[in-house]
Structures are given as C-alpha cells and as structure tokens.
Specification:
Blueprint lengths: L1 E5 L4 H12 L3 E10 L31 E6 L19 H16 L3 E3 L6 H13 L3 E3 L7 H9 L1 H5 L4 E7 L13 H15 L10 E7 L6 E10 L3 H4 L3 E11 L7 H4 L11 H11 L25 E5 L2 E7 L8 H18 L7 E8 L5 H12 L8 E6 L7 E8 L6 E4 L3 E2 L13 E4 L9 E6 L2 E2 L4 E2 L11 H22 L3 E10 L7 H16 L28 H5 L1 E6 L8 E8 L12 H7 L1 E4 L5 E9 L2 H11 L4 E7 L15 E5 L2 E3 L8 E9 L1
Parallel strand pairs: 1-2, 1-4, 2-3, 4-5, 5-16, 12-13, 21-22, 26-27
Antiparallel strand pairs: 6-7, 6-9, 8-9, 10-11, 11-14, 12-14, 15-17, 17-18, 18-23, 19-20, 21-23, 22-28, 24-25, 25-29, 26-29
Helix pairs in contact: 2-3, 4-6, 9-12, 10-11, 12-13
C-alpha cells in the first residue's frame, strides 16, 4: 500500500516507517504537525511531539520524499479520554483529520504509518481518524518489548549496513539530566536499562522519559544532518528535572537510491510469528501420533429438516441476552432479510429503553459466506455511531439456519455504561487487527465487575503483519496434518496474545469452531489436535519448552511460559464443526474470560461431580455465577436437566445436531440461544448430539 509516514522527527516514527517498507508498503510522503508559533518548541499536546520540529523544515535537503506540514495551536487537546470520539471540531485530532484528508487527496495514499509502542491514547486517535478516511494504519512497533526494540535500533546499522542516528533532545525522568542531551541511542541504552531495573522507567522513553530527533535515516537519500553544537534551553531549577535542547546541525550531502531500500531492509530485525513457547508446542504436537486410538465418530450425512425456534430475551444479573433473531419472511432478498433482523433488534432495544452502545458482543451466523460482504455492510450500518468500542463478534457460516442470517447479542442493562477493552485496527506484528466493525475484547465497567468478565472476538489463523491466512485456501487440496497443527497453534497464539495484553488469563467458557471446507483431513484428526493443544496449554507442566530456541524479539506483555490455569477451566470447552468461517479460515476460537479465577468448588463433592458442576465465580456484589459446559446424549436427558435449571436465573448457548432432536419442547426455552451444527464435541473430543455452554446465578 502507498502510505504517508506521520513523523515527529523522533526515532519511533522513523523506525516504524522502515518496518512498513520492509513489509512491502511504499512510502509516498511524510507528514508533520508543528506549532503555529514556530519559535515554540513545546506545544503541550497530549498527542504530538513537537520538540525539535525546526529540523524537519530542512528535510527537503536530505530526502527526496516530500514532506507536508500542518500548523496547530497550543492547548487544543480537548477530548482527553482514552478512547476518542469527534465531539469537538477544534480538537487537535480534528486538525489531524483535515491534514490527512488533504494528503489522501493529493497523494492517493492508502495507509498511515504511526510509531506508537504502548500508547493506546495515540493509537486510538490515529485509528479513529483513519477509519473515517478509509485508510489503513501501519503500527509495527505496537506492543513490542522495549528492551528488545531499543536494542534493535542500536544494532540497526550493524545488521543492515544502513545508518540510523537519533539524538536525545529532551529528558524528563529520574536519573536523566542535561548531560544526556545530545547522546545517541547507543550511549543512552545502558543507562536506560539500569534505570528500568531501579525505577521501572520505559527503556524506549514511551512514558515521556526522553525524546529524540533523527539526524540520519535510510530514507535520507540526499544527505544527512551532522551535529555541530547543542544549546540547552531549559534547566533543572526552573523545570523540575526536565531538560531540553536545540541542535545546531549542518547538512552533509550523500546520494543513495531509495529503490534499493526494500531489499536492504530485509535484514532488519522483527518478531517471529511464534515465540519459543508456541514453537515448542508446535514441535511437540508434530511428534504425537494422532492415528492412535481414534474413535469412529457418529457423523451423519443425511439431509435434515431445519427446526423452527423463536427469538427470545432473557436477563441474567445485569446482562440482557437477545437471541435467535431471524428474518421473518424467508422469500425476501438478502438486504431485506438483513433489515428485518436489525429492525427486530432495534424494536427490542426500544422496548427496554436501551441504547445500541450497551451491546457488548454479538454472534452472527451466515448461511452462505459468499454473502458476508453484503451482510457486513448492513451490520456496519446498524452499528454506526456506536462509539469507540463496538461489540466483539463471532461470525460463522452454517447452512442449517432457515434464513440468510441469525443474530444474537449480549448487552449491559446499565444505561450509564462505561466499556473497556481492545479495538486495535492497525496492522502490526502483535496480533491480527480487526477485519470488521468489532472489538477484539470488551467488558462492562459496571459495579460488581472488577474481575473484568468480558467477551473475546473470534480469532482465526491470520498472520498479523500481512493479515493473510497462514495456509492459503487456494492450496486447500494439499492441506495436511502439519498445516492443521500450524493453524491451530497460531489461532491459540492469537487468542493468548490478546489475553496477555489485557492481563487476563482465565477462560470461563471457550468455543472452537472447525470449518468443514477442509476435507483432506478427517474430522477425527482435527479434533485430536485441538483437544491435545487445549490440554497442554491449560496444563503447562505438560509442555516441554525447547530451550534451544532463543526469543530475541518479544512483545511487551509476553510471558516465557503459560500461566497455571485452574483445571476447572479445562472442562468449559465446546468444539463445533460448522460449514464455513470468515476468510475461508480453518478454525476460529472465541469465548468469555475473566481476570482472576476466584472460583471454588464444593470440596465435599466427588471429583466427577466437580467436573460436572463447572466453575463458580464470585462477583464484587457477592453474586455467585456458575459457568459450565455440558453434553447430552438424548433430547430427553437434556429436557430433564433443564427442568431443574429453571430455579436459577440462567442463559445457555446450545449446539445441537438437527437430526438428533426428537422432541419439539427442546426449542421452547426462553433462555437459550440455539445453534444447529454439523457436529459438536466436549473438551475430551467426545461427540455429543447436544453440547451447551451454561451461565447461571446460584441463589
């Protein structure tokens, strides 16, 4: 993609440009926002670094890449919440919008490079603006481990034979002073490592500890800046240990061909797709003989009659479930069926006096995935204006629904709802960005939910830096067991990365969907691999970490080993076979998670009953929630169990095989989301006609 590099002049914005070029994108121009008053170095902006901006006016002397400028006034950070919505036309972010809009029209750019490492404040704003302008965000430094990242910048020249010279022009941290001004990254790096150990300061200066200006970069093809002198313009007595300077430089001419830059940057360090622990799991799984002890599955190939069930609404605690919304007239065209579904949802929201903003997560079932774009367009239309954190979403393809789509939603009943979570739209090495109008994770910041019980969007085996499937569907005829293992490991890795970023580790209920499109492997083999990897990641002592593998390019939050999960988490898994998944993915993983497993199981119960009872979770309001996953061999067994459940406030998602349902009473429960599937399995890989995720309040 053709992209503009948002540059402050500092190391991070420059370094992200280099990674964007490495990943096949084409640098078209640079863009800088600077103070309206050119004599002013500090803009007091919440968003933009402007210290050293005067040097960027000389960029035309050192690079043939054009640079555009936009002047902004001081104190225009008006919307300062972590998430951003355009409520003020004079906010500095609206100036960024106008600036990028003009650049898009002039240069026909498709993407924007931004050097954010950990700042969600900065990332959210750039992504919001780019979303309005239909531009992609390139943020390859996002969530990188700062020690590794700083080391890579320091070693850049030796790795690539290309210059990367950045000088310290401002310090604002304990242990740093005016003597550090003008130092290179290589000179300041040992000191930052020491200060990090002593005071937990950010090694890369992401917390504002220091700011830099780049004097030489691979994108400088006409010359570079040579430092002549330093003028300190602040001192400690006046500015509380904040020091800054202006650099006196001269331009040294030099000729370089920018067309050769992509090849040269092949040697730039970047994170591996899988870290040591995931490579160890892949290696270990490849050594398992999955042809042993495979049970014959009861897989029906007969055409079945599609059952009817109605939309229902149920309340559990402070959460409302609106389930099984289907088109009322199946003879209508696709857009009309979509309109009927969203009209029904709108009517329920209106009857309950609930805003769309209170919706936390959705599950969308599509009969034919070739209609995804059209259905998604209607979905986007309905959820437009919902704010910075749209609902998380699981999207699946199933021919076993009557209409063209089926929708279920979960929402908070708190009309003053504050939400938190992750809605990352930038392309990075970290994790797949959202490929639809949904958040990766969302939870209600409601009273009683300090444990952050929340909803994960479905994760598929996408390579984050390219947003392509690890195994292309074009090669589906050659798809083998090793391909499947790689897909499962990457999907688990993507799911785990999200949880670690959020500092949330506990699975309350998990669903893994397997696509029927990949027919070169037996379903038995697929199930065996999934249950094996699920088992070892829930029981880390079963993993043999290969210590010969070196993790040298990590992420900020990444742990070398897996957390010790409570064994109770292991049981709350459904493995479901469906017709299709988004983007022709082979597997999708989603679920409900929480920060801490403050769970208890009655010690007087025998072990078997403990497994059956699931996980008890106590909220801050001393409500006892129970999350469990249960399997049933017959409809009568299911109906008998449900009669007992009616004494509790509960909600369930039921995965069932159409041809195995023998009693119409199965579809008469007001608390259930119904999902007809090809096959369903529990965490042991045992096939069952009916498998259910159940959530209830124990009274």
């Amino acid at each position: 993609m053709k992209f503009v590099g948002l540059v402050s002049g500092g190391k991070d914005s420059h370094y992200n440009i280099l990674h964007s070029i490495k990943n096949g994108h084409s640098l078209t121009c640079l863009a800088n926002l600077r103070p309206y008053d050119k004599t002013q170095q500090e803009l007091n902006s919440f968003m933009f670094q402007t210290c050293g901006h005067d040097l960027l006016t000389k960029y035309e002397l050192v690079t043939s890449v054009p640079i555009e400028f936009h002047d902004i006034h001081e104190h225009t950070s008006e919307v300062t919440t972590l998430t951003y919505e355009p409520t003020s036309k004079t906010d500095e972010i609206e100036m960024l919008y106008i600036f990028l809009k003009n650049i898009k029209e002039k240069y026909d750019i498709e993407a924007v490079s931004v050097g954010a490492i950990l700042s969600s404040y900065q990332r959210n704003r750039v992504e919001e603006v780019c979303n309005r302008l239909n531009l992609k965000v390139l943020s390859y430094l996002w969530q990188r481990d700062q020690v590794d990242l700083m080391r890579e910048m320091c070693n850049f020249e030796s790795m690539t034979n290309m210059p990367f010279d950045a000088k310290i022009i401002k310090t604002a941290a304990i242990g740093l002073n005016s003597e550090d001004l003008g130092k290179s990254l290589q000179q300041i790096y040992p000191k930052m490592l020491k200060l990090n150990k002593m005071y937990d300061v950010h090694v890369c200066g992401e917390g504002g500890e220091f700011e830099t200006i780049v004097l030489d970069s691979p994108i400088f093809d006409k010359g570079y800046f040579k430092l002549k002198d330093i003028t300190i313009i602040n001192n400690s007595d006046e500015n509380d240990d904040v020091y800054s300077c202006m650099l006196d430089v001269e331009v040294v001419e030099r000729k370089r061909d920018l067309k050769l830059l992509p090849t040269t940057l092949d040697n730039i360090e970047s994170p591996n797709l899988l870290s040591k622990k995931w490579l160890s799991i892949e290696e270990q799984t490849n050594n398992v003989d999955f042809n042993l002890d495979l049970q014959e599955l009861d897989i029906s190939t007969q055409e079945t009659i599609l059952h009817e069930y109605k939309m229902n609404v149920c309340k559990v605690g402070g959460v409302l479930h609106i389930q099984n919304i289907q088109p009322q007239n199946l003879s209508l065209d696709l857009d009309s069926q979509c309109s009927q579904v969203f009209k029904q949802l709108f009517d329920v929201l209106r009857n309950y006096n609930i805003s769309k903003r209170q919706i936390l997560t959705t599950s969308l079932i599509i009969k034919n995935m070739s209609n995804f774009q059209n259905i998604n367009r209607n979905y986007v239309k309905f959820f437009s204006g919902i704010g910075a954190l749209p609902p998380s979403r699981a999207c699946l393809g199933s021919k076993l629904i009557k209409g063209e789509l089926q929708l279920s939603v979960v929402l908070s009943l708190d009309d003053k709802l504050e939400k938190d979570g992750l809605h990352v739209q930038g392309i990075s090495y970290w994790n797949p960005c959202n490929i639809g109008p949904y958040s990766q994770f969302i939870y209600p910041k409601a009273k009683g939910n300090n444990n952050r019980i929340g909803y994960m969007a479905g994760q598929i085996p996408l390579i984050p830096k390219s947003m392509t499937l690890l195994n292309s569907f074009d090669q589906v005829e050659k798809y083998g067991l090793q391909n499947w293992i790689k897909d499962v490991v990457l999907t688990f890795r993507n799911y785990d990365h999200l949880k670690n970023t959020l500092n949330i580790k506990c699975n309350l209920s998990t669903t893994i969907y397997i696509s029927n499109e990949y027919k070169t492997l037996s379903l038995s083999e697929k199930i065996q691999v999934v249950k094996y990897i699920w088992d070892v990641t829930c029981n880390p002592y079963k993993i043999n970490i290969n210590d010969d593998i070196v993790d040298s390019n990590r992420f900020y939050y990444e742990k070398e080993t897996f957390d010790e999960y409570d064994d109770l988490c292991l049981n709350n898994l459904c493995i479901i076979e469906v017709d299709q998944l988004p983007a022709h993915a082979s597997i999708e993983m989603g679920g409900v998670i929480c920060q801490n497993m403050d769970c208890r199981c009655d010690d007087d119960l025998p072990n078997l009953e403990k497994v059956i009872e699931g996980v008890d979770l106590y909220t801050d309001e001393n409500l006892k929630y129970n999350f469990s996953t249960r399997s049933f061999n017959t409809t009568d067994e299911f109906l008998s169990f449900m009669q007992d459940e009616y004494k509790y406030p509960f909600q369930g998602t039921v995965y069932f095989k159409n041809e195995k349902i023998s009693n119409s009473q199965f579809f008469e429960f007001e608390n259930l989301e119904y999902f007809a599937v090809k096959n369903a399995f529990d965490y042991k890989g045992t096939s069952s006609p009916i498998v259910m995720h159940l959530k209830k309040i124990i009274i």
